[in-house]
Write a structure and sequence with these properties.
Layout lengths: L1 H17 L22 E2 L2 E2 L5 H5 L30 H14 L8 E5 L2 E9 L3 H8 L5 H13 L5 E11 L4 H17 L3 E9 L9 E12 L14 E6 L8 H11 L14 H5 L7 H9 L3 E6 L4 H5 L8 E5 L8 H10 L3 H5 L6 E7 L1 H14 L3 E8 L3 E3 L1
Parallel strand pairs: 5-6, 10-13
Antiparallel strand pairs: 1-2, 3-4, 4-7, 5-7, 8-11, 8-12, 9-11, 10-12
């Protein structure tokens, strides 16, 4: 880890030295402030990626701020709203924040540094922690924590440099905390970034006994002329999907509601699979950093969407220029058994599943037709990738 820290420090120093002038060279506010893309995430709902031209106008496309239905669907199936996640309230808060800090949006925030951008992302693990408490599986929840941030910043083409974590609990259980932090170390190793440090907070009476909360943030770097921003995406481009390990770290408020209605316990076998339900739900989030950076390095990648809260429906359009949408081929990949169980046990409509969960695809790359052929050929034996759809003229995402 020391070598990784040294490498990160050296890389930052090199970019600082290359800068024509310091970012903060005067105590006064610059008349033309440096570009800052500030991401805001509420209830695991990610908001739209803004192009550089839109950011310069400090505007937000309200047509892309989507919300889930207010009530259960007509079939009586469960929805995210039923599980207590009010996306409408989250959207309203984001609109109010936008008035105070224009330019929010995106999977990661970009800050100029010489001929590069620092790219930052922050997140937690959400109510997946509740299942960690119930199953006693704490060794991998730190991987989830790192994954949620580094997977966001790599969508800009950025290489993660370092990560910091925040661990808060009622009374510090050193053995339990060690397990959690070991997962964070594993996640940093998987994404080839340095764990610089963090904060451990012991707050009696604030958390329930035996419970804890996690958050963290990652910072990466990308050359300005290498930023993946989606502006060159055109109709006819291909959507390449990289498989997920399961639910990852989004939608667990709805998962837990389904579990309560299903009559199954976390120790029961997952229907259709030879694994316990708790183990399937706790499968750590895939860290896509090395794979995605390798694919980017071969050319042809125009946009990348991390499929988190909002599923396909809300995340894929975030990387598109106005006037473009996507068609998803529903049968182009294998949907994991855990999603089939969630949908059946919760009587959840297809549309609700597709805007809440990743459905087995954790990252989507928008690439040219030529690049898609090479990526799919290279995937044979080395990794798994699917041609899951295409870019079309129009708006939103449809499923065929």
């Amino acid at each position: 880890m020391t070598n990784t820290v040294a490498a990160a420090n050296a890389e930052i120093s090199r970019y600082v030295a290359a800068s024509s002038r310091p970012i903060f060279d005067k105590p006064t506010i610059a008349t033309q402030p440096p570009l800052v893309i500030r991401p805001y995430r509420l209830f695991s709902q990610r908001f739209p990626l803004l192009s550089l031209s839109l950011l310069e106008r400090n505007s937000i496309s309200s047509s892309r701020l989507r919300s889930l239905p207010n009530d259960s669907d007509a079939s009586g199936g469960l929805t995210y709203k039923d599980a207590g996640v009010d996306i409408d309230a989250g959207s309203e808060l984001v609109r109010r924040i936008a008035k105070m800090a224009p330019g929010i949006g995106g999977f990661g925030g970009l800050y100029p540094l010489g001929d590069s951008f620092l790219v930052a992302g922050t997140d937690g693990v959400g109510t997946k922690l509740k299942l960690a408490f119930e199953t006693g599986i704490h060794e991998t929840i730190g991987i989830d924590l790192v994954a949620m941030s580094v997977n966001d910043i790599v969508t800009s083409g950025a290489k993660p440099l370092f990560f910091l974590d925040y661990f808060a609990t009622s009374h510090l259980d050193v053995d339990l905390a060690e397990k959690v932090i070991k997962g964070i170390v594993d996640g940093c190793q998987q994404s080839d970034c340095a764990l610089l440090g963090g904060e451990t907070a012991e707050m009696p009476d604030f958390y329930a006994k035996g419970e804890y909360d996690l958050s963290g943030f990652a910072v990466g770097i990308v050359k300005k002329d290498s930023v993946i921003d989606g502006k060159n995406i055109v109709a006819g481009d291909v959507l390449i999907g990289l498989p997920s390990s399961g639910v990852h770290s989004n939608g667990f408020s709805l998962v837990r509601r389904v579990l309560a209605h299903s009559g199954l316990s976390l120790k029961d076998q997952l229907p259709g699979a030879a694994v316990a339900l708790g183990e399937a739900l706790m499968a750590p989030t895939v860290i896509y950093v090395k794979q995605v950076l390798d694919i980017i390095g071969k050319g042809g990648v125009k946009g990348i969407a991390h499929i988190t809260g909002g599923g396909f429906t809300d995340n894929i359009p975030r990387v598109f220029p106005e006037g473009l949408g996507a068609v998803i081929y529903k049968d182009s990949w294998n949907v994991p058994a855990v999603f089939k169980w969630i949908q059946q046990a919760g009587k959840i409509e297809d549309a609700e599943m597709s805007r809440t969960f990743n459905m087995g695809i954790g990252m989507v790359l928008v690439v040219s037709k030529e690049a898609s052929q090479r990526i799919l050929e290279d995937a044979n034996g080395a990794y798994t990738a699917y041609r899951i759809g295409e870019v079309v003229n129009g708006e939103g995402v449809s499923y065929h």
